[in-house]
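Continuing the batch. This is chain 6 of the set; chains 1 through 5 are on the previous pages. Same settings as before, nothing changed between runs. Recording input and output for traceability.
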Amino acid sequence: MIAALDHIVLVVRDIEAGIAAYRTLLGRDVAWRADADGAASALFTTANVGLELVAPAGGGAAGERVRAALEAGGERLTSLCFRVDDIETLHRRLTRRGLAPEAIADGSSVDARSGATRRWRRTRADGHGVKLFFVEPADAPPASAATTDAPLTALDHVVVTTPAPDRAAALYGARLGLDMALDRTNPAWGSRLMFFRAGDMIVEVMHALKDGAGDGPDRLWGLSWRAADLAAARTRLIGAGLDVSEIRTGRKPGTDVFTVRSGTMGVPTLVIGRT
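Output for chain 6:
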């Protein structure tokens, strides 16, 4: 039903500041820029997923929605957008599974620099606080060109925090049809972790054991990026003035990681590499 995670949306107050931050972090240039309906957007693409920055830019309904999101929660990740091969079939399945998707709509975007146009069909549904979009694209965006010798290559996982782990398991597993690769409670970590496969990356759902079960909203929380050369990526980011941790052994066997503490527009960020 779902082919992969297409992109993640990050709302920011200033599109130029966001572009500068993620051009530095990813070591890549913007693939697509657009301005429409009072909102400015910039898309970065990696080997497996895109990151779309969106900021208010004048009047218009889209700009007002972005302003409302910023007023409600500040700069943050807001949406997961999944790529599908057949939007009509997906819409019927989501309806049968009680997700009440919106009517399918056509969408398009014009790149502000090249004048090229991308088109897609989409629907959306509520993910208990995380906005869920589903797109059947007619055109793929261009690749984000590397601007350095040590760019980040792809997304390894996106983290969703939840007060209701069984509800989240039902949503991402049974209702969206993502393959559950792991469901583990680890008191030493203080959490229950669930991994759902989306293409070649993971949607990680995390529940803090100390908080107990609740019925509040889920939150799209953080990102973990892959680097082909972890040490070189860390050296590059330090040279760019970012605050990063020492390299340490990752929780996933055969990996090392470091934390990026600045330059992410407030998004908790990890960089992971194979040992």
